[in-house]
Design brief:
The chain has 103 residues and is α+β, with helices and mostly antiparallel strands. The chain has a single domain, classed as Trna Endonuclease, Chain: A, domain 1, CATH 3.40.1350. It has four helices and four strands, in the order H-E-E-E-H-H-E-H. A four-stranded mixed β-sheet has the order 1-2-3-4, sandwiched between helices.
């Protein structure tokens, strides 16, 4: 079983290898924000990382869920809660296919 810290480190490594700009938020005891904020190919994203042996959706705090929902509702960014590096890889593939239109 991988810890949240190990999964998060592997996700950050993947994001940087693929050319994303990513910031890890040091929340400390404040669990009301997501773990990672970033930009990939002009698209914003937030990622909440959970440990491997849990259901990521059920493990989110109410405020983490609100943050993810708000980013999804804005429509210009991506927001996920995961315990899998592979899921983040799939997200990047999805973002690779997205066309950016300057307004």
């Amino acid at each position: 079983m991988q810890s949240e810290k190990v999964i998060q480190k592997d996700i950050i490594k993947l994001l940087k290898e693929r050319g994303a700009w990513v910031v890890k938020i040091e929340a400390g005891r404040n669990h009301n924000t997501v773990d990672l904020f970033g930009i990939y190919k002009g698209l914003g994203f937030v990622i909440e990382v959970k440990k491997e042996d849990c259901d990521p959706i059920k493990a989110m705090t109410k405020l983490q869920a609100i943050c993810i929902r708000d980013v999804q509702l804005i429509g210009k960014g991506y927001a996920i809660c995961t315990n899998s590096v592979a899921v983040v890889g799939e997200l990047l593939c999805l973002m690779d296919r997205k066309k950016i239109v300057d307004v």
